[in-house]
Amino acid sequence: MKGGFEIDLSGIRAFCPLGQVDLKFCEKPEEHVGARYSFRIMEIKEKGKNIIVSRRVILEEEQEKKLKETLARLKPDLECEGKVTKLTDFGAFVDIGGIEGCSYL
Question: Which residues contact 97 (CB under 8 A, 6 or more apart)?
Fold first, then answer.
């Protein structure tokens, strides 16, 4: 697993660099072992013997789509649910569907 993951694409071996398996830094690579994900083929070299894949590009596209959908529905006085992502001395940061805002104390 050093540097990345060996991926089985229906019997064909591919490689996913550690930085391409998730949106954030992968602190516990072992948590991804055995998981089933969608990947995008980024490079094919040596007549298919060296295939590089990425999951991150797919996650980034999904995140961008979610962000655009959230922005399209935002307006003043809208009530919506969110997830607190960080607390500070001056307030809480809240994710409301791909957009993070601050709720001041």
Answer: 66, 67, 69, 70, 80, 82
Select from 55, 29, 53 the least CA-distant residue to 43: 53
Cα–Cα distance for residue pair 58/22, rounded to 1 Å:
9
Give the torsion through C-alpha atoms of 56, 33, 2, 60, to 10 deg: 10
pLDDT tens column, 8-18: 998 999 999 99
- 80-91 pLDDT, tens per residue? 888 999 999 889
**Cα dihedral: 59, 61, 63, 64 (round 10):** 160
Closest residue by Cα to residue 4 from 46, 24, 23, 32: 32
